[in-house]
Amino acid sequence: MASDTSKRVAEAAGGAIARKTGTPVRRVSAKTAAAAEAALARATQRLPLDTIIAGDCVSAMNALPEASVDLIFADPPYNLQLKGDLHRPDNSKVDAVDDAWDRFDSFATYDRFTREWLAAARRVLKPNGAIWVIGSYHNIFRVGASLQDQGYWILNDVVWRKSNPMPNFRGKRLTNAHETMIWAARDEAGKYTFNYEAMKALNEGLQMRSDWVMPICSGHERIKGEDGAKAHPTQKPESLLHRIIVGCTKPGDVVLDPFFGTGTTGAVAKRLGRRWIGIEREAKYRDVAARRIAAVRKHDAADLEVTRAKRSEPRVPFGQLVERGMLKIGETLTSPNGRFAAKVRADGTLIAHDQRGSIHQVGAALEGAPSCNGWTYWHMTRDGKTVPIDMLRAVIRAEMAAQ
Ligand SMILES: C[S@@+](CC[C@H](N)C(=O)[O-])C[C@H]1O[C@@H](n2cnc3c(N)ncnc32)[C@H](O)[C@@H]1O
Predict the structure, then answer these.
(1) What is the mean pLDDT of residues 331-360?
(2) Whose CA is closest to 111, among 75, 74, 140?
(3) Is residue 68 in contact with ligand 1, taking CB distance under 6 Å?
(4) Distance from the CA of 77 to the center of ligand 1, in angstroms?
(5) Which of 53-57, 98-102, 353-357, 381-385 is most confident?
(6) What is the residue with the minimal CA distance to atom 12 of ligand 1?
(7) What are the pLDDT digits (tens) for 251-260?
(8) Which end of the chain has the least Cβ crowding within 10 Å, N or C?
């Protein structure tokens, strides 16, 4: 039997082909979907999971099986174009990124490199996969254009506002207090993972916004060498990766980081019960990352379950409650404050004075609101208590889950 996921995968792949060829998108057969699912499973089996690959990320990704990775987090070289040393007012030298891996002789060279690694990354992503790329004003606009040129579909850009940024020592420009992250799906039609409810829960019940305030990596989290110097100039905070991985993957998914550095992505992925692959050119960083990840303890599976998006739960039409006699025809439902009442009709609609329609439409009309979630708005009386009708939907969903 082909799963919903494999059907979506095959449909997404079909959609991409249809856009290129101009042929209409049609629903795929269960056989095609099953074949797509089997191909995905084979590709994932051939992955070097939970491993740091040594070498250049373009050739390393090109050697991996196609369509095998769920999420990519990439923190590529920034191409800072620093001209000489930077000093603080007390004349001490600023520990800036002046490493060889960040130097490109021109914008054209940087763009060529960006196109190459983004193409290699897109090849290894599953059709429903997605990518996050972090950068600063030095490179993120070039990366953004390249992403779009190559067929990725930008979903959001997120501003990581640093709560403790480095000041602008020369006082010639604004304090550079943020970095930008671009979140893009592999394809426009891709059904990328977004754990909406989990993100909302992380934000104390409010919809997660696209501006994230987090400190830069410092204190005990910052890895130092024996000489006390930073092990890596651009180690990212784990909090950033935590939010991305919780929000955009499921336990067991494969997360790839082509610019692994100190292995922040691997450390957080392991802790959260995801599989990871890192690629890093420099041996000294690979050593740091390997030691760091070995010390990470994976949390218990029960603690890692993400709050499921309501949309991913099976749809239950309100009419089913009437058909099954869970609500009686003619039964009165009331609004939360008891101000409005409506009667249940045989066809699964409600009627209240001159308003008739779905549970959502009638609720919205009575409240004069643009929309209304009828499941939580309408209440029924059971055992002398007023309870939301959503309880009946939960019963049906529990039955479905047990089948
Ligand atoms: C901006 S840093 C990533 C830091 C990392 N996110 C962390 O938290 O430690 C970029 C890293 O990519 C590596 N790198 C640069 N070019 C590379 C390439 N072509 N292939 C593989 N690694 C590369 C650099 O050695 C550097 O460690």
Answers:
(1) 93
(2) 140
(3) no
(4) 6
(5) 53-57
(6) 259
(7) 999 999 999 9
(8) C
Q: Give the mutation target among 232, 260, 265, 276 for probing the ligand 1 site: most ligand atoms within 8 A of CB.
A: 260
Span from the CA of 65 to the centroid of ligand 1 (angstroms): 22
pLDDT digits (tens, 9 = 90+) for 148-164: 999 999 999 999 999 88
Q: Whose CA is nearest to atom 5 of ligand 1?
A: 261
At 225-243, the pLDDT tens digits run: 999 999 999 999 999 999 9
Cβ–ligand 1 distance for 280 under 6 Å, the answer yes
Ligand 1 near 139 CB (within 6 A)? no
| pTM flag (> 0.85) | no
- State the closest ligand 1 atom to the C-alpha of 56, by its place in the atom list counted from 1: 20
CA pair distance 400, 102, nearest whole angstrom: 53
Read off the tokens for 69. Answer: 């990775």
| Whether the CB of 236 sits within 6 Å of ligand 1 | yes
Token output for 291: 């030691």
